[in-house]
Structure prediction request, 266 residues.
Amino acid sequence: MIKRSKLLGLFLLLCLGVFIMTACSDDDNDNDNGQTISPGDILNPEDLDPNEVHLYIAVADIQEDFGPHRYDYFEGFIHAVDPELRVNEIDVQINGTNVEAMGWQGTWYVDYDFETGENYLFEIEINDKEYSGTVTVPYPVSSISFPEDYNPAQTANVSWSLDNNNQTQVAYAHSAYFEDIHDEDSSHWFREINSSDREFNFPANIVTNFGEGTEYELGVVQVNYQLANNVISAGISDRNREYGEHWRTRKERTRELIKNSIEAIK
Prediction:
């Protein structure tokens, strides 16, 4: 049987951008170092400016089915935004405990038991440089109700339950049409909403209908984040629903990649 660390390491490395969409926000937040950050930055680690952000630390929840097994818990990863930090080995401590980091091309998975609502101090040494950041693990949505069908020309209501408020929430929509597995047209939309909200009405016409075969996705992301000393620390919890079956979705293609990888290392 595959070890948990191998399986989820593959998942994080292959799926970092599965639920993350290209977007930007005008609602930037200033931190005590004068740097600015927005939820759009948090949800797009590959688009960060390495002159402003050197390292991205995140704890994200994973909800995926692999055969008869369902995996549902938080996992940590570290991403080197600065290309000079993209090495094979790093030293990591979480709350003072040494942890193993499994890395590939500047992204490392860390095997650690995270609890919702708790704070975790990451202390990282790369190329004789020391970085640190504290992640607050978000409370995940305990239940969520999406519409059975989605028509982008109409509004769509989504409601959910949360045990406690997180720092912020982001509602997002995505549409995509796949000419083939390598050719995709897509559109994206997101809006930061109040942390106390438990319902959101997606406006009409926020994403593009590319015609028959267009696939859609609606989602709500819980986010806790901060930027200090060129390090982003973020806790992320995503819940979404996909609509359309004409072409395989990104998640389905990613599952196939993971399945093939698992078979290769059995």
In short: Residues 250-265 form the longest helix (16 residues). Residues 1-34 have pLDDT under 50 and may be disordered. The chain has two domains: 4-139+223-265, 141-221. The two ends are 7 Å apart (CA to CA).
